[in-house]
Fold this sequence. Notes:
The chain is of the alpha/beta class. It has helices at 5-12, 19-30, 34-40, 65-89, 109-118, 129-142, 179-189, 212-221, 228-237, 249-260, 270-279, and strands at 99-103, 121-126, 148-152, 165-171, 190-203, 240-247, 282-291.
Amino acid sequence: MTIAPEADAQAKSVPTQSTxxxxxxxxxxxEENPVNLELGKLDDLxxxxxxxxxxxxxxxxxxxxxxxxERVTAELHRLEHAQAELLAGHLGPLSPADRVFDAGCGRxxxxxxxxxxxxxxxxxxxxxxxxxxxxxxxxxxxxxxxRVRYHHRNMLDTGxxxxxxxxxxxxxxxxxxxxxxxxxxxxxxxxxxxxxxVITGCYNDTYGQASREVSLINAHYICDIxxxxxxFRAMARNRLVPVHVEDLTEAAIPYWELRRxxxxxxxxxxxxxxxxYRNGSFQYLMIAADRV
Length: 292
């Protein structure tokens, strides 16, 4: 396969980053978390986000320890894939001729989901060189590297073509950047009428300031969770008009309750997420917006 020179140059470009962003890149370049890797090995769809929907808790009743691990892993992957499909379903309608942009693509699962659903071209961007290399290897393995490509770039300054994209998204990556800078870049990349979708954890303004649990999540992931209101204000300033808002908080809790029981996958942050969701200080939100 021949890659266009400009695409190849973008893939090899080193992004301009702040000191904080360099720390984030170092974190993800070193990350080898089983909760990301073991789930992705099941079908070579590697997601870097959580899951939604009712969990089949009967997997916990499996008496054979090894089989229990396998069944729990598969159920968690089913829930995270359901989340990716929910987001992809709000990007359309798209055609195979359309291009989509995956901001903060991680190991690339979301771009593949969009490609499988619509046949579209996808560009994923990650601040982690290791993730970009991994994701491109997966695209080659699937035989979709002529339509799905990943770039080691800063999602605030991608260098990608203005107005070239029919849809774009962030899936649990907005807490690493300033929202105005991020939404300005999405507005630049999207054509008029293009669709932007974000799924994110945000702290609940009605609770007050960020809770102890939100602070613990920030420390765990080296991020800075934004208040819910900040998303709508920054969108309004950057030509993104919400057309659909959905509170996924209740739908997210079963994933965390099951993951807490997965001894081979726990990271120690599970109870914090559950407590934050249940005390109302933290929300899991999806916003779909049109670029005007």
